[in-house]
Structures are given as structure tokens and as C-alpha cells.
Amino acid sequence: METRNDAQPSKLVHYAVEDGIATLTLDSPANRNALSRQLVAELVGHLRQAAAEAAAGVVRGIVLSHTGKVFCAGADLSEASAAPETGGGVEAGAQDLVRILHTILTVPVPVIARVDGAARAGGLGILGACDMVVASTVASFAFSEVRIGVAPAIISLTTRERMSSRSVSRYFLTGESFGAAEAQACGLITCAAETLGDALAPLLASIRLGSPQGLAESKKIANASMLARLEAGAQEMTELSTRLFGTAEAAEGMQAFQERRPPAWH
After folding, report:
1. Alpha-helical runs (H) found in the chain
2. Is it the case that residue 2 has pLDDT exceeding 50?
3. What's the chain's average pLDDT?
4. Considering 2, 46, 78, 86, which has the largest number of Cβ atoms within 10 A of its Cβ?
């Protein structure tokens, strides 16, 4: 298998291939790996690059990792509040998230998320789309939308199917943070581990034993219902997200979050 690393300091997502595994590393710790337009474009581009290299027999699996203490904080709120004509706005951000989720679900090799920190909001939608998720025992998770006046609209399309109905109700409605053990118990992640390398190694070894055709077709079967849910519900959830973010309540919630103060409804 080929070994290559084309990471560049100016990039927000780095791409490396070693022994048949493409590692995509989110590297925007200054904004907690939020889904800025640049990060989204690079992430989707590298996922498609991995898909092309899978067709060439170079890539057999993908690991989605991160730098810093946060895997992904979800939407870039500074861009969400920007004017649409500048390329920002809530609707554009929602469409970007749909594009990420759809690409993860349809790339023809397994995608494993490696989480060694916090995952919030849209970051959880990405975890739901991944085929497997390995998280360290220091990782934490939260559907934080309810606390800023919105709802987990787009990300519900990839998380509701993974999680038990009781856990969906609890964590969607409370916005509370929960740990890796709880995330595993409710189905959001595959396993919680003290040492991520030890947990990843057997999964990657098993993936390497699979044939390219077998992996691609098995992934299609495993993801069929979630992909159908995403394609059927993306427009409705994008419209819901856009409407909610446009309300006075959401504006207060986002401002309170950025100012690190309680919102008016407390």
C-alpha cells in the first residue's frame, strides 16, 4: 500500500494515506473545528479524493480525526450570521452540513471517526454519518442547539437512527453533556476506549481484510435507510434550521453564547 502525507500548515483539513487508510484531520482549533466554508470545502474535497483513490485500489478505509480539544463544535456562528451574498448565512451552512453527511454516507469505504475531545451540535451529525466511531473516555457530547434557541434539525437525520428513542428525547431536549460510556450505551458511538490506538487497530485490520467490492456494497446496505432519510428530509430540515436561526430567540441565544452569559429566558 502507498504511503503519502500532503499536510500543509495553511490547510484546515490535512490528508494522509498510510497502509491503505486515509486519515483526514480537522485542524482548526482556534474556532473549535467549527464548520466554516473553508473547512467544509476541504473536508468534502478530501473525502472525494479518498473515494477516487479507493477506486484505484489505494484506499480501503478512512479515519476522521482532529487536533485540539474539540472534534467539531458544529456550525461556525460567525459565518451563520453573515449576509448570504457574502457566502455566509444559515441556509448555506445547513446545505454545507448536508453535503458533508451525504458524502460520508456514500463514499465507498468505511469511515471511522476518532474522537479525543468534545463533539457538539453539527459535530454529532458527522459522527452519526460515520460508519464507526471510537471515542476516548475523556470525550464528551451534547446536542446543544436547544440552549441557544434552535433545534438539532439537520443532524437528527443521521443521529435519530443510531440512538435509542429515549436517549434522543433526553439529549435533544436537555442539551446536557454526556460522556463516552453513555454515548456508547445509547448507540451514538461504537466504543469508548482508554487508548484510541488500541481500539482503532483491530477495526482497521479487519477493514483491510475486506475486498473493495465487498466493503462498498456492504456499506450501501448498512446505510440505505439513513441515506434515504437524509435525502428525503434534507430540504425540510434546512428550511426549519433557517427559520429557527432567523428568530429573535435564536439571535438572543447566539449572542448570549458568544458573550458567555445566560440567555434572557434563564
Report:
1. 37-55, 77-80, 90-106, 122-129, 153-159, 165-174, 180-186, 196-209, 212-245, 248-258
2. no
3. 93
4. 46
Question: Measured between alpha carbons, how far is 151 from 154 in angstroms, rounded to an integer?
Answer: 9
- d(C-alpha 64, C-alpha 216), whole Å: 18
Chain-centre distance for alpha carbon 76: 13
What does the pLDDT read at residue 203? Answer: 98
What is the grid cell recorded at 133? 466511531
Q: Which of 33, 170, 41, 47 is nearest to 110 (CA)?
A: 47
Q: Which of 26, 21, 23 is nearest to 11 (CA)?
A: 26
How long a stretch of residues is the chain? Answer: 266
Residue from 188, 138, 152 nearest 167 by CA: 188
Residue with cell 466554508: 37
pLDDT in tens, 114-154: 999 999 999 999 999 999 999 999 999 999 999 999 999 99
Q: pLDDT tens-digit profile of 4-44?
A: 555 544 899 999 999 999 999 999 999 999 999 999 999 99
β-strands 13-18, 4-5: how paired? antiparallel
Quickly state the pLDDT bin for 45 (edges 50, 70, 90): very high
Helices vs strands, H then E, count in the chain: 10, 11
Domains and CATH numbers, the chain: 4-195 (3.90.226.10)
pTM more than 0.90: yes
